[in-house]
Amino acid sequence: MAIPASRIRMVLSSCYWSSYLEKMLSSSAARRFCSNARVGFIGLGNMGFHMANNLIKAGYKLTVNDIDQTAMKKFSDCGISTVETPFKVAESSDVVITMLPSSSHVLAVYTGQNGLLHGGSQVRPWLFIDSSTIDPHTSRKLSKNISQCLLKEKKGNADRPFMLDAPVSGGVPGAAAGTLTFMVGGIEDAYLAAKPLFLAMGKNTVYCGGPGNGAAAKICNNLAMAVSMLGVSEALALGQGLGIAASTLTNIFNSSSARCWSSDSYNPVPGVMEGVPSSRSYDGGFSSKLMAKDLMLAKASAEEIQQKCPLTSEALNIYMEMCSKGYESKDFSCVFKHFYSGNHNLSLNLYLKSFKDCSISNNFDYIINQIRSI
Protein backbone atom coordinates (compact mmCIF):
# COMPACT_ATOMS: atom_id res chain seq x y z
CA MET A 1 0.00 0.00 0.00
CA ALA A 2 1.37 3.40 -0.97
CA ILE A 3 2.38 5.74 1.84
CA PRO A 4 0.69 9.16 1.53
CA ALA A 5 3.05 11.99 0.64
CA SER A 6 1.87 13.95 3.68
CA ARG A 7 2.93 11.06 5.92
CA ILE A 8 6.38 10.92 4.30
CA ARG A 9 6.83 14.66 4.81
CA MET A 10 5.83 14.35 8.47
CA VAL A 11 8.33 11.54 9.07
CA LEU A 12 11.12 13.41 7.32
CA SER A 13 10.26 16.57 9.24
CA SER A 14 10.34 14.66 12.53
CA CYS A 15 13.75 13.20 11.70
CA TYR A 16 15.09 16.64 10.84
CA TRP A 17 13.79 18.31 13.98
CA SER A 18 14.93 15.43 16.18
CA SER A 19 18.49 15.79 14.88
CA TYR A 20 18.25 19.56 15.15
CA LEU A 21 17.02 19.52 18.74
CA GLU A 22 19.59 16.91 19.72
CA LYS A 23 22.28 19.44 18.84
CA MET A 24 20.43 22.12 20.76
CA LEU A 25 20.27 19.98 23.89
CA SER A 26 23.77 18.57 23.61
CA SER A 27 25.08 20.42 26.66
CA SER A 28 23.93 20.21 30.26
CA ALA A 29 23.37 23.97 30.23
CA ALA A 30 20.94 23.62 27.33
CA ARG A 31 19.08 20.83 29.13
CA ARG A 32 18.42 23.25 31.98
CA PHE A 33 16.38 25.55 29.71
CA CYS A 34 13.08 24.38 31.21
CA SER A 35 14.39 24.27 34.77
CA ASN A 36 15.30 27.96 34.64
CA ALA A 37 12.63 29.02 32.17
CA ARG A 38 10.38 32.03 32.39
CA VAL A 39 7.00 30.40 31.90
CA GLY A 40 3.89 31.90 30.35
CA PHE A 41 0.54 30.31 31.16
CA ILE A 42 -2.69 31.02 29.27
CA GLY A 43 -6.04 29.62 30.40
CA LEU A 44 -6.80 29.91 34.12
CA GLY A 45 -10.02 27.90 34.24
CA ASN A 46 -10.84 24.95 36.50
CA MET A 47 -7.77 23.02 35.32
CA GLY A 48 -5.37 25.78 34.34
CA PHE A 49 -5.71 27.64 37.63
CA HIS A 50 -4.34 24.69 39.59
CA MET A 51 -1.68 23.81 37.01
CA ALA A 52 -0.33 27.36 37.02
CA ASN A 53 -0.44 27.47 40.81
CA ASN A 54 1.59 24.25 41.04
CA LEU A 55 4.24 25.72 38.74
CA ILE A 56 4.49 28.72 41.05
CA LYS A 57 4.85 26.41 44.06
CA ALA A 58 7.65 24.62 42.21
CA GLY A 59 9.54 27.91 41.92
CA TYR A 60 8.88 28.91 38.32
CA LYS A 61 8.49 32.58 37.44
CA LEU A 62 5.12 32.92 35.71
CA THR A 63 3.34 35.41 33.52
CA VAL A 64 -0.34 34.58 33.10
CA ASN A 65 -3.25 35.55 30.89
CA ASP A 66 -6.97 34.79 30.73
CA ILE A 67 -10.06 36.51 29.36
CA ASP A 68 -11.57 36.21 32.86
CA GLN A 69 -10.35 39.22 34.83
CA THR A 70 -11.44 37.64 38.11
CA ALA A 71 -9.13 34.69 37.50
CA MET A 72 -6.29 37.07 36.64
CA LYS A 73 -6.85 39.07 39.82
CA LYS A 74 -6.33 35.96 41.97
CA PHE A 75 -2.78 35.80 40.60
CA SER A 76 -2.03 39.51 40.55
CA ASP A 77 -3.09 39.75 44.18
CA CYS A 78 -0.35 37.22 44.95
CA GLY A 79 2.28 39.20 43.08
CA ILE A 80 2.22 37.12 39.89
CA SER A 81 2.68 39.00 36.61
CA THR A 82 -0.52 39.28 34.58
CA VAL A 83 -0.77 40.67 31.04
CA GLU A 84 -3.73 41.48 28.79
CA THR A 85 -2.89 39.52 25.63
CA PRO A 86 -1.29 36.20 24.65
CA PHE A 87 1.27 38.14 22.59
CA LYS A 88 2.48 39.92 25.73
CA VAL A 89 2.82 36.53 27.41
CA ALA A 90 5.03 35.38 24.55
CA GLU A 91 7.16 38.51 24.75
CA SER A 92 8.15 37.77 28.35
CA SER A 93 8.44 33.96 28.26
CA ASP A 94 10.86 31.22 27.30
CA VAL A 95 8.15 28.56 27.43
CA VAL A 96 4.41 29.06 26.98
CA ILE A 97 1.76 26.61 28.22
CA THR A 98 -1.86 26.84 27.07
CA MET A 99 -4.86 25.14 28.69
CA LEU A 100 -8.00 26.07 26.75
CA PRO A 101 -11.52 24.68 26.17
CA SER A 102 -11.51 23.88 22.44
CA SER A 103 -9.69 23.92 19.10
CA SER A 104 -11.18 27.32 18.20
CA HIS A 105 -9.89 28.84 21.44
CA VAL A 106 -6.43 27.39 20.83
CA LEU A 107 -6.29 28.78 17.28
CA ALA A 108 -7.45 32.19 18.51
CA VAL A 109 -4.76 32.30 21.22
CA TYR A 110 -1.98 31.19 18.88
CA THR A 111 -2.87 32.75 15.53
CA GLY A 112 -5.53 35.39 16.29
CA GLN A 113 -5.11 39.11 16.76
CA ASN A 114 -2.54 39.71 19.53
CA GLY A 115 -2.00 35.94 19.62
CA LEU A 116 1.19 34.13 20.55
CA LEU A 117 2.39 34.19 16.93
CA HIS A 118 1.27 37.78 16.32
CA GLY A 119 4.87 38.83 15.84
CA GLY A 120 4.94 37.14 12.45
CA SER A 121 7.84 34.87 11.59
CA GLN A 122 9.83 35.64 14.76
CA VAL A 123 8.91 34.57 18.29
CA ARG A 124 10.59 34.75 21.69
CA PRO A 125 9.54 31.42 23.32
CA TRP A 126 11.59 28.42 22.24
CA LEU A 127 8.90 25.96 23.36
CA PHE A 128 5.10 25.99 23.19
CA ILE A 129 3.11 23.37 25.14
CA ASP A 130 -0.60 22.98 24.50
CA SER A 131 -2.42 20.96 27.18
CA SER A 132 -5.86 21.60 25.72
CA THR A 133 -7.95 18.71 24.40
CA ILE A 134 -8.23 19.37 20.67
CA ASP A 135 -8.31 17.31 17.49
CA PRO A 136 -5.00 15.83 16.25
CA HIS A 137 -5.30 17.54 12.85
CA THR A 138 -5.39 21.02 14.38
CA SER A 139 -2.55 20.16 16.74
CA ARG A 140 -0.33 18.91 13.90
CA LYS A 141 -1.09 21.92 11.74
CA LEU A 142 -0.24 24.29 14.57
CA SER A 143 2.98 22.41 15.32
CA LYS A 144 4.04 22.78 11.68
CA ASN A 145 3.29 26.51 11.70
CA ILE A 146 5.35 27.02 14.84
CA SER A 147 8.30 25.05 13.45
CA GLN A 148 8.46 27.47 10.52
CA CYS A 149 8.99 30.48 12.81
CA LEU A 150 12.38 31.83 13.88
CA LEU A 151 13.52 32.64 17.39
CA LYS A 152 14.25 36.25 18.21
CA GLU A 153 17.11 35.00 20.37
CA LYS A 154 18.88 31.69 19.82
CA LYS A 155 18.70 29.05 22.54
CA GLY A 156 21.96 27.15 22.38
CA ASN A 157 22.34 26.16 18.73
CA ALA A 158 18.62 26.45 18.02
CA ASP A 159 17.07 29.24 15.99
CA ARG A 160 13.54 27.78 15.68
CA PRO A 161 10.83 27.05 18.27
CA PHE A 162 9.16 23.72 19.01
CA MET A 163 5.71 22.61 20.06
CA LEU A 164 4.43 19.75 22.23
CA ASP A 165 0.78 18.71 22.45
CA ALA A 166 0.35 17.55 26.05
CA PRO A 167 -3.28 17.03 27.12
CA VAL A 168 -3.91 15.67 30.60
CA SER A 169 -5.94 13.10 32.48
CA GLY A 170 -6.92 13.36 36.12
CA GLY A 171 -9.54 16.08 36.13
CA VAL A 172 -9.77 19.02 38.51
CA PRO A 173 -8.87 16.90 41.58
CA GLY A 174 -5.70 15.74 39.81
CA ALA A 175 -4.83 19.28 38.76
CA ALA A 176 -5.27 20.52 42.32
CA ALA A 177 -3.25 17.67 43.83
CA GLY A 178 -0.53 17.79 41.17
CA THR A 179 -1.17 14.17 40.14
CA LEU A 180 -2.10 14.67 36.48
CA THR A 181 -0.96 12.34 33.72
CA PHE A 182 0.41 14.10 30.63
CA MET A 183 0.08 12.45 27.21
CA VAL A 184 2.73 14.13 25.09
CA GLY A 185 3.21 14.33 21.33
CA GLY A 186 6.07 16.02 19.51
CA ILE A 187 9.81 15.66 19.21
CA GLU A 188 11.04 13.31 21.94
CA ASP A 189 14.02 15.44 22.92
CA ALA A 190 11.71 18.42 23.45
CA TYR A 191 9.54 16.18 25.63
CA LEU A 192 12.57 15.16 27.71
CA ALA A 193 13.66 18.78 28.10
CA ALA A 194 10.15 19.79 29.23
CA LYS A 195 9.69 16.91 31.66
CA PRO A 196 10.53 19.01 34.77
CA LEU A 197 7.62 21.28 33.87
CA PHE A 198 5.23 18.35 33.50
CA LEU A 199 6.31 16.83 36.80
CA ALA A 200 5.78 20.15 38.55
CA MET A 201 2.12 19.94 37.49
CA GLY A 202 1.56 16.19 37.50
CA LYS A 203 2.73 12.77 38.54
CA ASN A 204 3.00 10.82 35.29
CA THR A 205 4.13 11.57 31.76
CA VAL A 206 3.75 9.33 28.71
CA TYR A 207 5.52 10.03 25.45
CA CYS A 208 3.09 9.15 22.66
CA GLY A 209 5.14 9.82 19.54
CA GLY A 210 5.19 12.60 16.96
CA PRO A 211 3.15 15.82 16.74
CA GLY A 212 -0.57 15.33 17.39
CA ASN A 213 -0.17 11.93 19.05
CA GLY A 214 -0.80 13.35 22.51
CA ALA A 215 -4.07 14.83 21.27
CA ALA A 216 -4.98 11.50 19.66
CA ALA A 217 -4.26 9.61 22.90
CA LYS A 218 -6.42 12.03 24.88
CA ILE A 219 -9.54 11.70 22.76
CA CYS A 220 -9.17 7.90 22.78
CA ASN A 221 -8.83 7.95 26.56
CA ASN A 222 -11.92 10.13 26.98
CA LEU A 223 -13.90 7.97 24.57
CA ALA A 224 -13.16 4.90 26.70
CA MET A 225 -13.96 6.86 29.87
CA ALA A 226 -17.32 8.02 28.50
CA VAL A 227 -18.36 4.54 27.38
CA SER A 228 -17.32 2.94 30.68
CA MET A 229 -19.28 5.58 32.63
CA LEU A 230 -22.35 4.82 30.53
CA GLY A 231 -21.95 1.09 31.11
CA VAL A 232 -21.50 1.43 34.87
CA SER A 233 -24.44 3.86 35.13
CA GLU A 234 -26.73 1.61 33.12
CA ALA A 235 -25.79 -1.46 35.17
CA LEU A 236 -26.22 0.33 38.51
CA ALA A 237 -29.60 1.67 37.42
CA LEU A 238 -30.70 -1.79 36.34
CA GLY A 239 -29.49 -3.25 39.62
CA GLN A 240 -31.53 -0.79 41.66
CA GLY A 241 -34.55 -1.54 39.50
CA LEU A 242 -34.11 -5.22 40.37
CA GLY A 243 -33.82 -4.47 44.06
CA ILE A 244 -30.05 -4.40 44.59
CA ALA A 245 -28.61 -1.44 46.50
CA ALA A 246 -26.13 0.60 44.46
CA SER A 247 -23.54 0.29 47.23
CA THR A 248 -23.87 -3.50 47.23
CA LEU A 249 -23.57 -3.74 43.46
CA THR A 250 -20.60 -1.37 43.52
CA ASN A 251 -18.83 -3.66 46.00
CA ILE A 252 -19.49 -6.57 43.65
CA PHE A 253 -18.15 -4.64 40.66
CA ASN A 254 -15.02 -3.60 42.51
CA SER A 255 -14.16 -7.16 43.49
CA SER A 256 -15.15 -8.66 40.15
CA SER A 257 -14.55 -8.34 36.42
CA ALA A 258 -16.64 -5.14 36.08
CA ARG A 259 -14.19 -3.12 38.14
CA CYS A 260 -13.09 0.12 36.46
CA TRP A 261 -12.34 3.77 37.26
CA SER A 262 -16.01 4.69 36.91
CA SER A 263 -16.98 2.21 39.62
CA ASP A 264 -14.09 2.34 42.10
CA SER A 265 -12.87 5.94 41.85
CA TYR A 266 -15.66 8.07 40.35
CA ASN A 267 -18.91 6.30 41.12
CA PRO A 268 -21.91 8.00 39.48
CA VAL A 269 -24.54 7.11 42.13
CA PRO A 270 -25.16 9.79 44.79
CA GLY A 271 -24.15 8.70 48.28
CA VAL A 272 -22.10 5.65 47.29
CA MET A 273 -18.70 7.37 47.37
CA GLU A 274 -17.49 10.47 49.18
CA GLY A 275 -15.49 13.23 47.53
CA VAL A 276 -16.79 12.69 43.99
CA PRO A 277 -19.20 14.91 42.01
CA SER A 278 -22.14 12.50 42.35
CA SER A 279 -22.10 13.14 46.11
CA ARG A 280 -22.29 16.92 45.68
CA SER A 281 -25.13 17.19 43.16
CA TYR A 282 -22.69 16.52 40.29
CA ASP A 283 -21.03 19.92 40.76
CA GLY A 284 -17.37 20.39 39.89
CA GLY A 285 -15.36 17.88 37.92
CA PHE A 286 -15.50 17.41 34.15
CA SER A 287 -18.62 18.92 32.60
CA SER A 288 -21.03 17.07 30.34
CA LYS A 289 -20.58 19.71 27.63
CA LEU A 290 -16.83 19.10 27.58
CA MET A 291 -17.38 15.35 27.38
CA ALA A 292 -19.77 15.93 24.46
CA LYS A 293 -17.09 18.08 22.81
CA ASP A 294 -14.45 15.36 23.23
CA LEU A 295 -16.81 12.74 21.81
CA MET A 296 -17.40 15.01 18.83
CA LEU A 297 -13.63 15.14 18.32
CA ALA A 298 -13.42 11.34 18.53
CA LYS A 299 -16.30 10.93 16.07
CA ALA A 300 -14.79 13.42 13.61
CA SER A 301 -11.37 11.75 13.86
CA ALA A 302 -12.93 8.33 13.26
CA GLU A 303 -14.77 9.61 10.21
CA GLU A 304 -11.56 11.17 8.89
CA ILE A 305 -9.85 7.76 8.78
CA GLN A 306 -13.08 5.88 7.94
CA GLN A 307 -13.07 3.97 11.22
CA LYS A 308 -16.38 2.57 12.48
CA CYS A 309 -17.04 3.68 16.08
CA PRO A 310 -20.71 2.94 16.90
CA LEU A 311 -20.28 3.33 20.67
CA THR A 312 -18.78 6.78 20.12
CA SER A 313 -21.88 7.87 18.23
CA GLU A 314 -24.27 6.46 20.82
CA ALA A 315 -22.32 8.01 23.71
CA LEU A 316 -22.32 11.36 21.92
CA ASN A 317 -26.09 11.20 21.40
CA ILE A 318 -26.65 10.52 25.11
CA TYR A 319 -24.40 13.34 26.28
CA MET A 320 -25.95 15.76 23.80
CA GLU A 321 -29.34 14.82 25.24
CA MET A 322 -28.05 15.43 28.78
CA CYS A 323 -26.82 18.87 27.72
CA SER A 324 -30.17 19.69 26.12
CA LYS A 325 -31.89 18.81 29.42
CA GLY A 326 -29.85 21.38 31.33
CA TYR A 327 -26.99 19.23 32.61
CA GLU A 328 -24.29 20.75 30.39
CA SER A 329 -22.40 22.25 33.35
CA LYS A 330 -22.83 19.23 35.61
CA ASP A 331 -20.10 16.59 35.88
CA PHE A 332 -20.30 13.96 33.16
CA SER A 333 -21.11 11.26 35.73
CA CYS A 334 -24.59 12.81 35.93
CA VAL A 335 -25.34 10.57 32.94
CA PHE A 336 -26.54 8.14 35.62
CA LYS A 337 -29.73 10.23 35.57
CA HIS A 338 -30.23 9.23 31.94
CA PHE A 339 -30.76 5.65 33.08
CA TYR A 340 -32.26 6.09 36.55
CA SER A 341 -35.25 8.27 37.33
CA GLY A 342 -34.75 8.05 41.09
CA ASN A 343 -38.16 6.44 41.61
CA HIS A 344 -37.24 4.27 44.57
CA ASN A 345 -40.88 3.48 45.31
CA LEU A 346 -41.39 1.99 41.85
CA SER A 347 -38.32 -0.22 42.27
CA LEU A 348 -39.44 -1.23 45.76
CA ASN A 349 -42.95 -2.12 44.57
CA LEU A 350 -41.62 -4.26 41.74
CA TYR A 351 -39.24 -6.00 44.10
CA LEU A 352 -41.87 -6.61 46.76
CA LYS A 353 -44.34 -7.91 44.17
CA SER A 354 -41.75 -10.41 43.01
CA PHE A 355 -41.10 -11.39 46.62
CA LYS A 356 -44.82 -11.82 47.29
CA ASP A 357 -45.32 -14.00 44.23
CA CYS A 358 -42.81 -16.41 45.71
CA SER A 359 -45.19 -16.93 48.71
CA ILE A 360 -42.25 -17.00 51.09
CA SER A 361 -44.19 -15.64 54.09
CA ASN A 362 -47.81 -15.99 55.25
CA ASN A 363 -47.45 -12.62 56.92
CA PHE A 364 -46.29 -10.90 53.74
CA ASP A 365 -48.87 -8.09 53.75
CA TYR A 366 -47.87 -7.19 57.30
CA ILE A 367 -44.16 -7.17 56.33
CA ILE A 368 -44.85 -4.92 53.32
CA ASN A 369 -46.75 -2.42 55.43
CA GLN A 370 -43.94 -2.37 57.99
CA ILE A 371 -41.32 -1.71 55.27
CA ARG A 372 -43.40 1.04 53.67
CA SER A 373 -43.82 2.75 57.01
CA ILE A 374 -40.04 3.19 57.42
Automatic annotation (TrEMBL):
It holds the Pfam family NAD_binding_11. Belongs to the HIBADH-related family. 3-hydroxyisobutyrate dehydrogenase subfamily. It is found in: Mitochondrion. The keyword Transit peptide applies. Signal peptide: none annotated. Its main location: mitochondrion. It is an enzyme of class 1 (oxidoreductase). It catalyses: 3-hydroxy-2-methylpropanoate + NAD(+) = 2-methyl-3-oxopropanoate + NADH + H(+). Keywords: Branched-chain amino acid catabolism, Mitochondrion, NAD, Oxidoreductase, Transit peptide. InterPro entries: 3-OH-isobutyrate_DH-rel_CS, 6-PGluconate_DH-like_C_sf, 6PGD_dom2, 6PGDH_NADP-bd, HIBADH, HIBADH-like_NADP-bd, NAD(P)-bd_dom_sf. Its EC number is 1.1.1.31. Residues 38-209 form the 6-phosphogluconate dehydrogenase NADP-binding domain. The keyword Transcription does not apply. GO terms for cellular component: mitochondrion. GO terms for biological process: L-valine catabolic process. Pathway: Amino-acid degradation; L-valine degradation. GO terms for molecular function: 3-hydroxyisobutyrate dehydrogenase activity; NAD binding; NADP binding. This is 3-hydroxyisobutyrate dehydrogenase. Residues 212-337 form the 3-hydroxyisobutyrate dehydrogenase-like NAD-binding domain.
